[in-house]
UniProtKB/TrEMBL annotation:
It comes from Alicyclobacillus tolerans. It is found in: Membrane. GO terms for molecular function: GTP binding; GTPase activity. It comes from the Bacteria. Keywords: GTP-binding, Hydrolase, Membrane, Nucleotide-binding. Pfam families: Dynamin_N. SUPFAM superfamilies: P-loop containing nucleoside triphosphate hydrolases. Signal peptide: none annotated. GO terms for cellular component: membrane. This is Dynamin family protein.
Length: 653
């Protein structure tokens, strides 16, 4: 708290310095915003993983109490936020009708069911039988039937939110036909082991059938302070796992962060320590191959951890049985004491790291961000001191030269406003930088294509299926979906890189334009605080023509011919160049849209700061009493000196 109090005292002193200053209102407003950002102590921990990996079970263990319902249904994913250290009522928000229709229409597309409204889709789904579909499509059909069953109850709650008790939430989420309508749940938990300000988020599974959930995952991927990725001990990495981790690796690379904590859950299933270490090493190797350079891996048993904490509170036959099963103990064998079970669970290291490491990192980032903002304000204060000095000179013997410099600066800015020559220079650099990035997007997907193809057209799909045509269509749909996912992952990463490049180049343009102004005026010009924001690429933005793939299914005549006699190889060789042409076309379309949006934003921002600079130039020649100008400069000079001392900054020479 010492650092906190010291900084709060500094902010209060800074507010006093700016009080009642002439032209000081914008500075006071900036300081208030900086103070509000500093006081936001929220730390967000987002938990990801496949539906069967044990995300909810792990969160219950971290929270040391059974808060979340452990659902076996892979279609009812909801965002659940646990607000640690908070009092209040639990809050449930239902999806809007548009969100439900988006999920339903996606499911209809996957089972090739045509419907032009939510009600029509649900009515048609009622009559369909799972036996008509393959394994993948049956998941979508199961979702549609759940939505149909719950619609009479939930139709009047769409888009609404309401308070509930924890018991009501558990009964609500246990019913798949109701849970599939829930968009988000917030659970205040005053007795959580995490400090106030921690928010733990149970996210939809990375293998969710809903495209909208990839957008949700990407947002939390960027916003979260820590990401916990859960893998089940006996499960290999799925394609959905790899896609998520590949994207996370790219995001971390762009943002210069490592906020991933990988949990191998249910390690109590290991035969011995040697097998457990071998599994953890396999996970480490897989993570590195996906671009996670320094993986943090925790082997835990979430059920043992929860049982230990609950048994420490009171004896409970349910949790005693849970511990016996996980420890493989017979009914007559003695159960270890709760503290020993807790140590065996392996959860303590993860819990401590999430509590301390992220709190420390968050605190450091808060202080660094505040210091950057105070430095920016210092530069603006120095510019005001210079401006007032120039006003004094403009009233004295140098007025003729000063007015000439102002006129020159005004002319240069007007020229740039009309023809954008400085902006065109950085646009050339932008095109050069992006051309190579876009080329490598296509190359990376091309290198993955054969693996994606073989994962979709695998022998087991055709051995298990009685209907070859249905299996082929499922395989083609899976490959098409994976290619769209690859495009989505890559273009999102490109967007992050483009945002960073765009900001750097626009700052260069501002500096270059300022450098063209007469030297006397440069120090008094405020270089803008540039913040580029590009639109997020959404899953529904990706559209591809998959006809080349569908037209190549004739290469499959039988499972033996396809997998043993070269049919798979022939189809791959035929379809890859055609489908990659479609992939590159879609990449070009999406990246062009992002570039056009950036350049439009550049043009608008340049116009804004040129207008602001022209206004400053007009103020340089404003008339006023010499005594008043001198007094104002003296006051701003004092503020600059005290501000530099307060925040440990050097003054401009």
């Amino acid at each position: 708290m010492g650092v906190e109090h010291t900084i709060q005292d500094k902010i209060a002193a800074a507010q006093n310095l700016l009080a009642d200053l002439p032209h000081g209102q914008p500075f006071q407003e900036s300081l208030v915003l900086a103070k509000e950002r500093f006081q936001n102590r929220q730390v967000m921990v987002a938990v990801f993983g496949a539906f069967s990996a044990g995300k909810s079970s792990l969160l219950n263990a971290l929270l040391e109490q059974p808060v979340l319902t452990v659902s076996p249904n892979p279609t009812t994913a909801t965002v659940t936020k646990i607000l640690a250290g908070r009092q209040g009522e639990l809050w449930i928000e239902a999806k809007s009708k548009d969100e439900v229709w988006q999920d339903v229409s996606d499911a209809c597309r996957r089972i090739q069911l045509e419907a032009d409204s939510l009600e029509a889709a649900l009515a048609k789904a009622e009559s369909l039988q799972p036996a008509q579909y393959g394994k993948t499509a049956r998941t979508s059909l199961s979702y549609l039937k759940a939505v149909s069953k719950g619609y009479p109850v939930m139709r009047h709650r769409l888009g609404q939110s309401w308070n509930a008790t924890l018991d009501e939430l558990r009964s609500f989420t246990a019913d798949e036909s109701l849970a599939c309508y829930v968009r988000e749940v917030q659970v205040p938990l005053a007795n959580a082991p995490f400090a106030e300000g921690f928010v733990l988020v149970d996210t939809p599974g990375v293998d969710s059938i809903h495209r909208r959930h990839t957008n949700v995952a990407f947002n939390y991927m960027r916003q979260a302070d820590a990401i916990v990725f859960v893998l089940y001990y006996t499960h290999a990495f799925s394609r959905a796992d790899k896609n998520f981790l590949q994207q996370l690796a790219d995001v971390q690379n762009v943002m210069g962060q490592n906020k991933l904590y990988v949990v191998v859950n249910a390690v109590d299933l290991a035969v011995d320590e040697e097998e457990r270490h071998a599994v953890e090493q396999r996970v480490r190797d897989e993570l590195r191959s996906l671009g996670i350079v320094e993986p943090r891996i925790y082997g835990v048993s979430s059920q043992l951890a929860l049982a230990a904490k609950q048994l420490k509170i009171k004896t409970d036959p349910k949790f005693e049985q849970m511990a016996r099963v996980r420890l493989q103990l017979g009914p007559e064998e003695p159960l270890p004491v709760p503290d020993e079970i807790w140590n065996i669970s392996g959860l303590e290291a993860l819990q401590k790291d999430l509590m301390t490491a992220n709190d420390d990192v968050r605190e450091r980032l808060r202080v660094e961000t505040l210091q950057r903002e105070m430095t920016h304000l210092m530069n603006q204060i120095e510019a005001e001191v210079t401006r007032l000095g120039l006003l004094q000179r403009a009233r004295a013997e140098e007025r003729e030269r000063f007015v000439a410099d102002v006129e020159t600066a005004h002319r240069l800015l007007q020229e740039e406003k009309e023809n954008g020559a400085v902006l065109r220079n950085v646009q050339v650099q932008l095109q050069s930088d992006c051309q190579e990035l876009i080329f490598h997007i296509g190359e990376r997907i091309r290198l993955r294509f054969s693996n994606l193809f073989r994962e979709a057209f695998y022998p087991g799909r055709f051995v298990q299926s009685k209907e070859t045509k249905m299996a082929l269509q499922e395989a083609a749909a899976e490959l098409a979906g994976q290619l769209e996912t690859q495009i989505l992952v890559e273009t999102r990463t490109f967007s992050l890189r483009l945002q960073k490049i765009g900001q750097e180049l626009l700052e260069q343009a501002a500096d270059a334009l300022c450098a063209r102004l007469p030297q006397m005026l440069r120090a008094a010009i405020n270089i803008p605080d540039i913040q580029i924001q590009l639109p997020e690429v959404q899953a529904e933005d990706v559209h591809m023509n998959h006809q080349p793939l569908l037209q190549s299914l004739h290469y499959f005549r039988s499972a033996r011919q396809f997998f043993e006699e070269g049919g798979q190889r022939d189809m791959l060789e035929a379809v890859e160049p055609l489908q990659m042409g479609e992939v590159k076309s879609e990449i070009s379309r999406l990246t062009t849209q992002l570039l056009e949006h950036l350049q439009q934003q550049w043009a608008e921002m340049e116009q804004e700061w040129i207008e602001a600079w022209m206004l400053q130039l007009r103020q340089f020649t404003e008339q006023g009493r010499a005594e008043e100008i001198a007094e104002n400069q003296s006051r701003w000079q004092f503020v600059a000196e005290e501000w530099a001392k307060l925040w440990g900054l050097s003054r401009a020479q």
